[in-house]
Specification:
This protein is mainly alpha-helical. Among the domains are: 90 residues, no CATH class; 101 residues; 160 residues; 101 residues, no CATH class; 117 residues; 83 residues, no CATH class. Helices cover 71% and strands 0% of the residues. It contains 34 helices and no strands. Helix 12 runs parallel beside helix 14, helix 22 packs parallel to helix 24 and helix 31 packs antiparallel against helix 32. Pfam families: DUF2339 (PF10101).
């Protein structure tokens, strides 16, 4: 049935969806009825199974009743147990009659009697009361005369009497969903089905025709009449919704909101789309609608209604824009709207309404200012900016002190911090050429917030808001100072001041100074960045490397961040904050190094400068780590080791090879300092030192690899030698760290085992990848002649394979299960070695075209046959069935190759040789090992 409905739905969906989206409409039309009917069928089956399970459960709980045919005379029931009955009497009542010694019909089974305390224990989870209740329910549903009232007790049975056949139980009444599904099924399966389906198809056709007529514009009405009808519908909805506000509040409010929305859209469409209204009448209508929405929302205490109305009000100047640039009218209108929001905030704590007004006011104002503001407008724009700032400062205050929704302390961060952070940059734009005026503005804002702090100090439950205003007061007071001076001069002072203020706040357990000190770090960083881009390069002369405002400013920011991290670690641990502050300081320390690129290149050279900087960083961090007993300083060592690895690549570009004469001394100094730092922390469980050790090993491998590669180029060595040179450093280090970690893992050999995965987890995949790449190299051995298996490439591959086999497959590792794949690797290696031999000795081109040669195919056939025969014979001699079967499979492949590939070359010598060799080998092995080794008893096949 579901398929019939699905196909019908597919037909209807295709008709209704038109020509462009017929596929989508057909799929949706098929899936909806198909899935709905499947759900109905599933629900029906689940209900039937549930009823069957309930009946089975009741039958298991109720004892079997004797049928009338098996009982020729009624048995005398045992007397019902009374509260005075003793356990002995109950036991006597339950004693069965003696068994008859003579033949005859079997005795009539006695009816169950009430259980006594001396009877067998009930199964777990059951008691007398639950069994009696289950009996009663089952008897009632099955039409039996069994009832608890007739038993004389909760657990007693009625006197046995002949039972009439059970009355048929009436089927359960189907539910509404089943009735609906049944009616649909009957409609489609009974009566004149073709006519019914035809009606549905006709309905779909008519709907599609109407849709087409509407799209072609056959139904036309005057535009003014359309808007009048829409406006009347909106008014009716608004009036009816207001009427239903008491009897059905949710329905009434929704209808009022919809009516206001319809009216707003009608006015906008009549003005903007068709020009039926002039700007001023349209604007006036929207103002009336907004005012009405505000009045209705306050009257009914409904925020969504207010939001809808004010949304239309704020959008009205944007949507109804005549292009006159009457900014005074615009800001005056917004001042009225914000005054209404301010008035509502006295009575209602509607945060969404406050945020919407804040966003539209400053957002539209900022967009207008970016496009149209000119300095001569300052006297008319500044009062509006001040008014809007005061509005939303007070609105943010009222929202906190008047609402009761949230537990105290509570702060509306968007308005409390967003208002000054948005308004003051706008003030800076207005006063961009007047630094003193901007400094005075910052001081006035600081005084305003200080006054709010003084006001809120009497409200003990607003401590968080008090601290927020105090932070803003301190911030703007601090901001007023550098506005009269250069940004670079004040950056360092702010950073040090912030560290000191935060330290005092921590020591005195005061939140406000602590937060203020942290925020001052951000202000100091911003001031430093401004100074960095504002100044020219005059102060970066070659005579003052590091000793210039650029490096000193960043270094002091780094010092302040690290100092704050140390203070928090020792005196006020906050999860994640110490690490964040330390990363902040470390970032500024390495940024300070980047600012010295130009003078460093002229004085010592850029590569030497960075190496000296990294070496000094590691030495300072190691010394302070020992002095302060602060392991977090190891982060500097780890990051420096990362940059040291990158400096190896830079040295390759700078000197041609990283270990050439100009760089050797610097690498030696860097390596000595890094080893000293690792040795000093050899007993510390530090992840940073583990990372530094691993990176130091990779740096050594990288330097050796690049140096050997340069040597190979200089000597003109061929590809096979270059392959060995590229892999030797990583391979030898991997082998040493595996077989002799005390030597190769120094200076942290004892701790190396805990993080050895950092090396092997990257080295092993790299070596596996190199092995895979090396298999397909042509492997020239110049200046030496090429010898099969005795050339640098294949010797290196075999050594690499032996090490990987021992490390991965012979030891316990995640790759131990891949032992069965190792013979396949050997087969590929031997096959490619044959191809390399053909290439070097017979002159065939190296590449996929080499397989087109009959000589190549013959060589592969012969070698594969020899391998198969050897495995066959060796397996037979060793009684190794798996090895014997491997040889048999390989010989089978050879036979297929002869039939499919080598037969193309049967007209020449190579094809004939292939066949002869394979034939002879098979004959010989058939004589030596004709059958697989027998499986011993108990051995798995």
């Amino acid at each position: 049935m579901n398929w019939v409905l699905g196909i019908l739905g597919l037909f209807i969906g295709v008709i209704l969806s038109g020509t462009n989206r017929w596929l989508f409409g057909g799929v949706v039309g098929f899936l909806i009825p198909y899935l709905l009917w499947s759900l109905v069928e599933l629900r029906r089956r689940i209900d039937a199974q549930d009823r069957e399970l309930q009946e089975m459960h009741l039958r298991l709980l109720t004892p079997a009743m004797p049928s009338p045919a098996a009982a020729p005379r009624p048995a005398t029931p045992a007397p019902a147990e009374t509260p005075a009955q003793t356990p002995a009497a109950a036991a006597a009542a339950e004693t069965p009659a003696p068994v008859r010694a003579t033949g005859g019909p079997p005795p009539i089974p006695a009816m169950p009697t009430p259980r006594s305390p001396s009877a067998d224990p009930l199964p777990p989870g059951l008691d007398e009361a639950s069994i009696a209740a289950a009996r009663a329910r089952f008897a009632e549903r099955a039409g039996s005369p069994l009832s608890s009232s007739a038993t004389g007790g909760a657990g007693a049975m009625p006197p046995p009497r002949p039972q009439a056949p059970p009355r048929p139980r009436a089927p359960a009444e189907p539910g509404p969903l089943e009735k609906f599904a049944g009616s649909i099924k009957a409609w489609f399966t009974e009566g004149n089905v073709p006519v019914k389906i035809g009606v549905l198809v006709l309905f779909a056709g008519v709907a599609a025709a109407l849709r087409y007529a509407a799209a072609e514009g056959y139904f036309t009405f005057p535009v003014a009449m359309r808007f009048i009808c829409a406006g009347v519908a909106g008014l009716l909805a608004l009036a009816f919704g207001f009427r239903e506000r008491t009897s059905r509040p949710a329905f009434g409010l929704s209808l009022q909101g919809g009516g206001i929305g319809i009216l707003l859209l009608t006015v906008f469409g009549a003005y903007k789309m068709y020009g039926l209204l002039d700007p001023m009448p349209a604007f006036a209508m929207i103002v009336v609608l907004v005012g009405g929405a505000a009045f209705l929302s306050v009257l009914q205490k409904n925020m969504p209604l207010a939001v809808l109305g004010f949304l239309g009000g704020y959008l009205a100047p944007v949507l109804i824009n005549s292009g006159s640039n009457n900014y005074i009218g615009l800001f005056s209108y917004y001042a009225v709207l914000n005054a209404a929001v301010f008035a509502i905030s006295w009575k209602q704590s509607w945060r969404l309404l406050n945020l919407m007004g804040f966003a539209f006011t400053f957002g539209v104002g900022s967009v207008w200012g970016a496009k149209n503001y000119r300095p001569e407008m300052f006297s008319t724009v500044e009062p509006f900016l001040i008014l809007f700032f005061v509005f939303y400062v007070v609105i943010g205050l009222l929202y906190v002190i008047r609402q009761t929704e949230h537990r105290r302390p509570w702060v509306d961060g968007t308005l409390v911090f967003g208002t000054p952070m948005v308004a003051f940059p706008l003030q800076a734009v207005l006063l961009k050429d007047d630094r003193i005026g901007l400094a005075f503005s910052a001081l006035v804002v600081a005084i305003v917030y200080a006054g709010l702090v003084f006001y809120l100090r009497r409200r003990r439950d607003e401590r968080l808001l008090t601290e927020a205003y105090g932070a803003l007061a301190l911030g703007f007071a601090t901001l007023a100072i550098p506005l009269a001076f250069s940004a670079g001069t004040t950056a360092t002072l702010w950073a040090l001041e912030g560290a000191g203020v935060a330290w005092l706040g921590i020591r005195q357990n005061r939140t406000f100074p602590w937060i203020s000190g942290l925020l001052l770090q951000l202000l100091a960083a911003g001031s430093y960045v401004i100074s960095l881009f504002a100044n020219t390069g005059d102060y970066l002369s070659p005579d003052n490397l590091l000793l210039n405002p650029s490096w000193l400013g960043a270094a002091i920011l780094a010092f302040s961040g690290v100092l704050l991290a140390f203070i928090h670690d020792r005196h006020r641990p906050v999860r994640g904050l110490s690490a964040l502050l330390f990363l902040w300081g470390m970032g500024w320390w390495f940024l300070a190094a980047i600012t010295q690129v130009d003078p460093a290149e002229e004085i010592v050279g850029l590569w030497r400068y960075f190496m000296l900087y990294l070496t000094a960083t590691i030495a300072i961090a190691a010394a302070l780590r020992h002095l302060l007993s602060w392991l977090r300083l190891n982060w500097f060592v780890g990051v420096s080791a990362i940059f040291g690895l990158l400096m190896g690549l830079y040295a390759q570009e700078e000197f041609g090879a990283p270990l050439n004469a100009p760089a050797v001394a610097m690498w030696a100094l860097y390596g000595a300092v890094l080893i000293a730092a690792l040795w000093g922390g050899r007993e510390q469980p530090s992840r940073s030192l583990a990372l530094s050790h691993i990176l130091g090993l990779w740096t050594l491998a990288l330097l050796a690899t690049l140096q050997l590669e340069d040597f190979s180029d200089a000597q003109g060595l061929a590809q096979g030698w270059r392959f060995v040179a590229d892999l030797a450093p990583v391979g030898l280090l991997t082998l040493g760290l595996w077989r002799a970690p005390p030597w190769f893992g120094w200076p942290r050999a004892e701790a190396f085992e805990g993080y050895a995965l950092g090396w092997f987890g990257l080295a092993i995949p790299l070596l596996l990848f190199a092995f895979g790449v090396g298999l397909f190299l042509e492997g020239s051995a110049a200046p030496l002649p090429y010898l099969p298996l005795l050339n640098p490439l294949e010797l290196g591959l075999m050594a690499l394979a032996a090490m990987l086999y021992g490390k991965l497959l012979r030891t316990k590792s995640a790759f131990s299960g891949m032992r069965g794949a190792w013979p396949f690797v050997g087969f590929v290696f031997v096959s490619l070695a044959v191809l390399r031999t053909v290439h070097h000795w017979h002159g065939e081109p190296w590449g996929p075209d080499i397989l087109d040669s009959g000589f190549t195919q013959t060589c592969l056939t012969v070698v594969w046959s020899l391998l198969g025969v050897g495995a066959w014979i060796l397996g037979s001699r060793r009684v190794d069935r798996g090895l014997w079967m491997g040889g048999a499979v390989l010989l089978g492949i050879v036979l297929f190759k002869l039939a499919l590939v080598d037969r193309l070359y049967l007209g020449n010598v190579t094809g004939i040789v292939s066949c002869l060799v394979v034939g002879l080998l098979l004959v010989g092995v058939g004589y030596i090992a004709p059958s697989p080794p027998k499986i011993e008893e108990g051995e798995s096949a």
